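RECORD TYPE: inverse folding
INPUT: structure tokens
STRUCTURE:
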């Protein structure tokens, strides 16, 4: 009898949870726990480990409930949907398929396992769309009310669009060599102020001095170093600054356009706010839905 009781206890100890018709074993739980611990730099204390184990079990129960609901609704993911998702990942990260596969392998994951994880994400998204998002509604009045209550979030700072011609200066350059580069920059500036085009002027010095020219981008004044702000102060749109000294170059800055600050108009942020409220409502509904799944389940 003692032997039978011990064997029964040993079997029961290997069941971490029963979720309706499915079982989560302690072996599965320990595997997930080790995967999580491998990602952490510092090992947890015994108390932290116990809390992490409980959190991991709760997460596995939720995942099991979600998978059971997916099966009940007979949701599937096609190869075409997975391929579309992979192409979307490549596009967002500007990667080729080979680059993506290498990046996945570098993270210690086989590409087939990555595809499987992607398939699970798509299934979960479909389930949420079916069970939650389709039942969430955002009215025009809510969007307007949010906009009025958060006007400060939609104020734009003044910005400036800049281009530049860059005259490189070697770290080992002597004072005389630096003065020569400055002289060339001033010579180029004189040509630009005689209405010569920026690209040909930059190209004419490229072979000898490695000069380049092109767009720098759009910036708020707070994003620019003080030297740049001072240099473009008083420069008209389309005009060039005096040479600006930086650690590795002299720059001629062109002010392409100044954009005044102000309030973004409602029509330009309408969809953005709609999506924000929709996501907030969806997140709240997902929590309610998950709790309902748990309450209705054994």
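DESIGNED SEQUENCE:
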């Amino acid at each position: 009898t003692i032997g039978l009781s011990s064997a029964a206890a040993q079997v029961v100890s290997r069941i971490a949870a029963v979720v309706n018709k499915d079982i989560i074993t302690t072996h599965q739980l320990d595997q997930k726990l080790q995967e999580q611990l491998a990602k952490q730099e510092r090992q947890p204390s015994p108390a932290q480990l116990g809390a992490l184990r409980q959190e991991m079990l709760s997460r596995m129960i939720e995942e099991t409930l979600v998978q059971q609901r997916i099966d009940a609704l007979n949701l599937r993911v096609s190869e075409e949907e997975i391929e579309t998702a992979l192409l979307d990942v490549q596009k967002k990260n500007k990667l080729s398929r080979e680059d993506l596969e290498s990046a996945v392998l570098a993270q210690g994951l086989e590409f087939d396992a990555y595809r499987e994880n992607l398939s699970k994400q798509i299934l979960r998204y479909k389930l949420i769309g079916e069970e939650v998002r389709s039942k969430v509604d955002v009215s025009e009045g809510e969007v307007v009310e949010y906009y009025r209550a958060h006007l400060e979030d939609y104020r734009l700072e003044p910005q400036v669009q800049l281009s530049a011609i860059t005259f490189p200066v070697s770290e080992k350059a002597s004072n005389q060599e630096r003065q020569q580069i400055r002289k060339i920059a001033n010579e180029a500036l004189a040509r630009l102020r005689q209405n010569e085009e920026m690209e040909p002027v930059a190209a004419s010095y490229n072979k000898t001095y490695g000069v380049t020219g092109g767009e720098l981008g759009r910036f708020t004044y707070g994003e620019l170093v003080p030297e740049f702000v001072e240099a473009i102060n008083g420069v008209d749109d389309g005009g060039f600054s005096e040479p600006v000294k930086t650690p590795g170059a002299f720059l001629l800055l062109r002010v392409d356009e100044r954009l005044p600050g102000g309030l973004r108009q409602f029509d330009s942020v309408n969809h953005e706010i709609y999506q924000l409220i929709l996501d907030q409502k969806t997140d709240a509904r997902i929590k309610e839905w998950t709790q309902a799944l748990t309450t209705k389940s054994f």
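NOTES: The radius of gyration is 31 Å.
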